[in-house]
């Protein structure tokens, strides 16, 4: 088996706790790129939230790729869309209605990476963080103030951890049959199109590049990484991942503060 494509999470995987890329991670990734391996950052972030790290790694152009919005979009670094799936305007309104009825906070992201919310009494810190990462501001609008055909890539319920814990079962009961619901971080419960995740994005990209899935490697630490860890030829969990995720992976590498990505590249990609 020769690894030809690596799909890799960003937060708590590529990045350490200070949101930095270690020199070891950078060096091994750049060596893999020189060897012709496709290194694909795969994240719930939008494109703008990933540009800084793409630039630091020297990943650019028409023949390099990213998976953004949790798998909703696969594109080249230069912007050519390979695959994209959205939530309909009806779905967006259903989610907005649920948020308003239950006094919750949320934001939605469109295909251009813009951040929206209909909350106007209080903007929570997680929505502000999302808008900051997207670097396109925050648009405070109700669905009725947007075009009738307006669609989103995903909606993110934003509450402190304990409150999200308390509402997750109800959100799954309300939306889980029609949409993909996943907890991506402490204050983020995401609702995305059904059958859209990092795994489906990896399959679409591998098929586009004519790369057999057995020749792919996935590295991650979170719940939303599980599908791609299971789908890739080799799934590598970070040491800082939960026991559940480590038990599902094929291998476990060092944690994100100990250049675990570099260790995985050295063992499975550059050997």
From TrEMBL:
<dbReference type="GO" id="GO:0005829">
    <property type="term" value="C:cytosol"/>
</dbReference>
<dbReference type="Pfam" id="PF08282">
    <property type="entry name" value="Hydrolase_3"/>
</dbReference>
<dbReference type="InterPro" id="IPR023214">
    <property type="entry name" value="HAD_sf"/>
</dbReference>
<dbReference type="InterPro" id="IPR006379">
    <property type="entry name" value="HAD-SF_hydro_IIB"/>
</dbReference>
<protein>
    <submittedName>
        <fullName>HAD family phosphatase</fullName>
    </submittedName>
</protein>
<dbReference type="InterPro" id="IPR000150">
    <property type="entry name" value="Cof"/>
</dbReference>
<dbReference type="GO" id="GO:0016791">
    <property type="term" value="F:phosphatase activity"/>
</dbReference>
<dbReference type="GO" id="GO:0000287">
    <property type="term" value="F:magnesium ion binding"/>
</dbReference>
<dbReference type="InterPro" id="IPR036412">
    <property type="entry name" value="HAD-like_sf"/>
</dbReference>
């Amino acid at each position: 088996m020769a690894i030809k494509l690596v799909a890799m999470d960003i937060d708590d995987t590529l990045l350490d706790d200070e949101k930095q890329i270690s020199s070891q991670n950078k060096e091994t990734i750049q060596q893999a790129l020189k060897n012709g391996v496709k290194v694909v950052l795969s994240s719930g972030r939008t494109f703008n939230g990933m540009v800084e790290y793409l630039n630091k790694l020297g990943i650019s152009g028409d023949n390099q790729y990213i998976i953004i919005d949790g798998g909703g979009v696969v594109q080249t670094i230069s912007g050519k869309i390979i695959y994209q799936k959205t939530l309909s305007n009806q779905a967006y309104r259903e989610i907005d209605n649920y948020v308003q009825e239950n006094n919750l906070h949320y934001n939605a992201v469109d295909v251009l990476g813009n951040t929206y919310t209909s909350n106007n009494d209080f903007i929570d810190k997680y929505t502000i963080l999302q808008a900051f990462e997207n670097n396109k501001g925050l648009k405070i609008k109700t669905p009725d103030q947007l075009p009738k055909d307006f669609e989103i890539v995903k909606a993110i319920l934003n509450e402190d951890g304990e409150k999200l814990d308390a509402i997750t079962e109800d959100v799954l009961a309300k939306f889980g049959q029609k949409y993909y619901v996943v907890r991506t971080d402490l204050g983020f419960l995401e609702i995305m199109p059904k059958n859209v995740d990092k795994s489906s994005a990896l399959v679409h990209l591998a098929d586009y590049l004519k790369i057999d899935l057995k020749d792919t490697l996935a590295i991650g630490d979170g719940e939303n990484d599980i599908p791609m860890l299971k789908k890739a030829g080799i799934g590598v969990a970070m040491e800082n991942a939960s026991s559940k995720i480590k038990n599902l992976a094929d291998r476990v590498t060092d944690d994100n503060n100990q250049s675990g990505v570099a260790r995985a590249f050295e063992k499975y990609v550059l050997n």
